[in-house]
Fold each of these.
Amino acid sequence: MDKKIAVKVDDLTVAYNYKPVLWDIDLKIPEGVLMAIVGPNGAGKSTLIKSILGILTPIAGSIRIYDKPYTKQRKLVAYVPQKGSVDWDFPTTALDVVLMGTYGSLGWIKRPRQKEKKAALEALEKVGMLAFKNRQISQLSGGQQQRIFLARALVQNASIYFMDEPFQGVDATTEIAIINILKELRKAGKTVVVVHHDLQTVPEYFDWVTFLNVKKIATGPVKEIFNDNNLTKTYGINYKVSIQE
Amino acid sequence: MNSAQLEIQLIAALVAIACAIPGTFLVLRKMAMISDAISHSILPGIVIGFFITHNLNSPLLIFLAAFTGVLTVFLVEYIQKTGLVKKDTAIGLVFPALFSIGVIMIAKHANDVHLDVDAVLLGEIAFAPLDRLHISGVDVGPKALWVIGSILITTLILLFLFFKELKISTFDAGLTASLGFSPVILHYGLMTVSSITTVGAFDAVGAILVVALMIAPAAAAYLITLDLKKMLVLAIIIGIGSAISGYWLAHALDASISGSITTILGLVFLLVYLFAPKKGVIAVYFREKQQRIEVSLLTFLLHLNNHNEIEERHVNHLNEHINWQKIRAKTVLNLALQNNMITIDKDIVSLTKKGVKFTTQAIDYIITNEDSKIEHMKADFFLFRG
């Protein structure tokens, strides 16, 4: 494979209270893939993303984004946390949340200006939420909140997108809208990494997959490795999915 | 109004502003109880500072006390992180321990220093104008005014510079970290400001009642607005208003000023809690009642839409068919009649054209949840006026 490696994880071990939740993970994510991370609850999927983004401190291992440490490459990376990780009663509007995506490139102290606002409005339009820009975020539905989060990542105009369960609690229309945007990102040469739960949709949505259960089980093209063998190894029970091509 | 009265009110108002700003963020971070912990545990810091400086307004004393405040937060989080106790338990363990150290220190040295627990806990703003600051022999005003004024200006500068960072780290700590703003620095920055403000305010309202000035205005503002900047401004206004009216209440009753201010704060919160336009208890009650009636109306119209049988549509049998009390059935019938959605002919209810259209569109809206479907109905009908 002579594809560029966007994200390289070596010997990553992460522990909560001295109990390892990720154990000796080696992972290469090639540039331009749309990758699902799958695994049972407690497999360390979110932990893996958070460690790559420097939100958690690993006890061992190294992480490289385009062959440099994350702290040097922040502007190349966008992050969509789990929807449930924030308080949606926070007194602010949809537009303001999207604007937060521009804070990284602004740095300390500087405020968003017209240029940032314009970018935020464009991102809102892309996710079909422009009409809701002044809506208080608690008055949005779950699917709309997820779109706002996606818009906030889009406005960062990054090369690599990490998303923690973007399809959780959204309706079918929103799910399709989101996956279409992710596919567009891939088409534009971006790398997209998604923590995903619905195994049925993996072959339809993604071209790359990583099986994770505390240890890495397998990683590679969906066509080659998304099979009952790896699923059984990951989920521990005899797994059968009917894969429609 | 003499100049002492004016000075007291000015100090109280500045304290109110200085408290409302960190208070707003504490409330949004669900850390209101931390301010209570800080307000108690700065006591040993104040006492040690006083032993060293013999001056309640010395900057060193303020920093030492603020340091114990931040230490409290650190200890609470450290104990919590062990996973052995929950956060509220950790708070309950840390601040009484630090507080009691302060109490014992005061008791041991009560004879040779002029510092008593009452003064620290309850404050005595009435005496604040007596303690003047002199610069090269010129009286420039009460010391307390200068202390709280400097703290307030620092707080305002920090708020102005780091508003964006404070907002994002309060809303989404994960994103904040991934963007390269350290949530830990912001967190402890806020804790430092809260601690310094608490120390600065103890002269005026005492270390305990300062909690009310931090939390009550922010909590009330949170119920009124959905915008962070407006919430800050409202909290400040409520704080100032309560401080000044509290002063005059104390004047009228010849009672403790800090006690009166806190009482007013409690009353203001109670009023907002009851009467806030959208989130207030009364507004919520009437909205829910309204919604109940509207849903009943829709249920009733749907029933008519689904049934052509005469017996299902007879006025006197409605309560049997949809299992409603007579009063409720009557309310709904009247409502439908008033809006020309039904006609009643010989006690048999039928839907009008308007009624049919309304029912279909409303059902459609409820199923699809698409706002565009009812856009043109909003003016005509009352159901979706929310």
Amino acid sequence: MSASPVESSAASSDVLRRYALTVGDTSLILAQRLGEWIGHAPALEEDLALANIALDLLGQARYLLSHAAELQGGERTEDDVAFLRDPQDFLNLSLVEQPNGDFGQTIVRQFLVDAWQLELFERLQQSSEPRLADLAAKAIKETRYHFRFSSGWVVRLGDGTEESHRRVQTALDALWRFTHEMFVASPAEQEAAALGIAPDPASLAAGWSSRVDEVLKEATLKRPADVAYSWHGKRGQHSEHLSRLLAEMQSMQRTYPGAQW
Amino acid sequence: MYTQGLDSLGADCLHTSASERAALEQRFQSKVDAEERIEPKDWMPDAYRQTLIRQISQHAHSEIVGMLPEGNWITRAPSLRRKAVLMAKVQDEGGHGMYLYSAAETLGISRDELLEQLLTGAAKYSSIFNYPTPTWADVGAIGWLVDGAAIMNQIPICKCSYGPYARAMVRICKEESFHQRQGFEIMMTLSRGTPEQRRMAQEALDRWWWPSLMMFGPNDATSKHTAQSMRWKIKRFTNDELRQKFVDITVPQAEFLGLRVPDPDLQWDEASQHYRFGTIDWSEFQQILQGNGPCNRERVEARQRAHEGGRWVREAAMAYAEKRRQRETQAA
């Protein structure tokens, strides 16, 4: 049975909305985590760099969340989508909600996500959905810089001192289990791929893997064994950390409903 | 001149007789009087150099410590737009710290030495950053009042006799005036908002008004450094002149916002065309300078934690750079 044109356009707008949230929430939550560092980084240069990356990610998130708000209709804004949604409605990768830990852990998390976003935005530039293609065209340039920064630090820390090598290897071992999720399609990603507006996540794995391997080799770090258990942040099933992060991020909007800021 | 290297290290007594030094000082002062810029390699009196190091590094430290009270609200900014603006602002402050450390380095002291002085408490930073930011309105009040007072202090420094400091300040002032407008805009949104938001705005003004007036430093009669700094054209106006200017500009802004300035003695003086304001509680200022302000301990500890926590990272970066250098030497 084929859907009527009206139904199918409503359905595709819902797919697009959920897909925009999958990509946008990942950028938003990572920006929020990086924001915790500003003023506390190991050196002034890193304070500035982390703030830069956070600002880029926040810009991506605002673009996509505004679009999601429009697709949902009514008077909804990017702020309603960011601040008045419950944790189970966030569709970000579980990796980005993991706590900052030490600088090594923050860098490893950033590096793994940057490598994934590079593959994703590269492909998303060819999306038949103009809003996604536009976002990707801008974001790919930002992500190249992010990847240069994070992979540069992975190498420096991996091939630096004994202590830095140990710390960054520990971070890699701890975070690797969250990478499987990147390549397993959520319902939103599956439907978006079927509509031809986004790549199949599985198709990003090979590029991501070779990019990561190249840097790990230079950093003298060992690639951990893959863990088949997949986290499901992209389906709204999160680790314990997201609700705390959101409790803080959303506190003003939740405490003063309806106020303008 | 082959003694330039020694001179620029501040050793103005090396190889110079008293009469030669007098001649150098005279030439220096006439350059300053003629509004020419003193550059890093020029001869300068040691006291001038030390005064500048003290002032520029205090200013740099203030930018760095100043990232903390506002940074406190990055994760809780009430809208995505405010979050982006605040992140960019705190980042700008870090950038200002960097230019200022670089300007201080031209005087023959390293950033590491300066940071060390901050962490051990040997160097001061602006007393204002030892006050807390309990509400979102404090972010607005800092932008409006603290950045407003900073601009008042800093615009004259764009014409400071020391070139690198003056040039750093031109760029900083542009960004600061942008921050000040953003802060005022936060206050405007709050003061036209809900009763809770108006209360937040008023209480923030109550908290920041007097500390902002203290930012200009002691009254002229008790200010140790003013006269010499004015002769050297490091400073162009006295503390009291700048403070008065700030009050004259800011009071009408508070009225525009519908907020009450917490000073019962504040009144417009028709004859002088200035606002007259109450007496500043200098004992509070002294307490803060002595380290007893509400957040002195937290601010320094936060900087120490970042520094200690980042030590292994900086060591790794150095070790890696050294390994690379060795590999390149071997390859060559």
